[in-house]
Design goal:
alpha+beta; 5-stranded mixed β-sheet; 6 helices; 6-stranded antiparallel β-barrel
């Protein structure tokens, strides 16, 4: 049997269409370890959603052996994981091999796995503002690019940052973004770390720093095609197994798109 697990609280509660021989399961409140334990070995599970759905799943099943085939059927706005592995939303993609050896991030007293990235800076600010918009108007379409542009020009203030990679410290002024990447993409298609390989056993931290707001804004679109890496006067990249980022003031952060408020420091580890 194949089971489609979907979130009835997402996408305005729209139920995905399923074929004959497929059972539709509302995943709201589901205990994933117990649910998987009750399946037969030949049963298959399809997670219906995006990056947030996959992040929730890997954290819920952390530490247990998965014996069933797990698929992701991408939908919604966030599909950076699928983009990274060369797949598209709308098709069932088996993800078992991507669910192991994931990095952890320690932030604000919690530790979580992440599948794509741990973001810090204006990306976290965008998620924070988007959450506020959704709370007031759940059906409103979010324009993340518009939020980022307004943040760059008016609302988000860059920080002094200490970036420590495998024990080596680097300091930067006027830092706008400092995400640590497991995959290449984040933010709905931004090619933030073009050389990052999720099977390399390493993570990449990208430091985007610039004193001039206008220059930072002008260069920002280059991230979508990965062309920002050539702008070495404002972009530095480091790879390693343990990456810590400390900002000079609290900012919002995001883990695979999930907002974390009032963050001054995080540490990401790839064992």
């Amino acid at each position: 049997m194949k089971y489609y697990l979907y979130n009835s609280l997402a996408n305005n509660g729209i139920r995905p269409e399923v074929k004959e021989g497929v059972e539709l399961v509302d995943a709201v409140g589901i205990d994933y370890p117990e649910y998987l334990k009750g399946l037969n070995p030949e049963d298959e599970v399809v997670l219906v959603g995006g990056d947030g759905t996959l992040n929730y799943f890997v954290n819920a099943v952390n530490g247990i052996e998965i014996k069933n085939n797990i698929y992701l059927l991408g939908c919604g706005t966030g599909n950076d994981f699928l983009t990274d592995i060369g797949k598209q939303a709308g098709e069932e993609v088996q993800v078992n091999k991507y669910l192991t050896n994931l990095p952890t991030v320690r932030v604000n007293g919690m530790e979580k796995l992440f599948i794509n990235n741990m973001g810090f800076g204006i990306d976290g600010y965008c998620c924070e503002v988007a959450d506020q918009i959704k709370e007031k108007n759940p059906e409103k379409k979010i324009n993340y690019s518009g939020i980022a542009i307004k943040g760059l020009l008016f609302h988000f203030k860059p920080c002094h940052a200490e970036i420590t990679v495998d024990g080596v410290k680097h300091e930067f002024e006027n830092v706008w973004i400092a995400p640590t990447m497991k995959g290449k993409y984040y933010g709905g298609g931004m090619d933030m770390a073009p050389e990052q390989d999720r099977f390399s056993g390493k993570l990449t931290v990208v430091v985007y720093h610039c004193k001039s707001k206008i220059k930072a804004l002008m260069a920002f679109p280059s991230i979508f095609k990965g062309e920002h890496v050539a702008k070495t006067d404002i972009v530095q990249m480091f790879t390693g197994n343990e990456i810590s980022v400390r900002f000079s003031r609290p900012c919002a952060a995001q883990i695979d798109g999930e907002t974390v408020l009032n963050v001054t420091e995080y540490t990401a580890v790839q064992k």
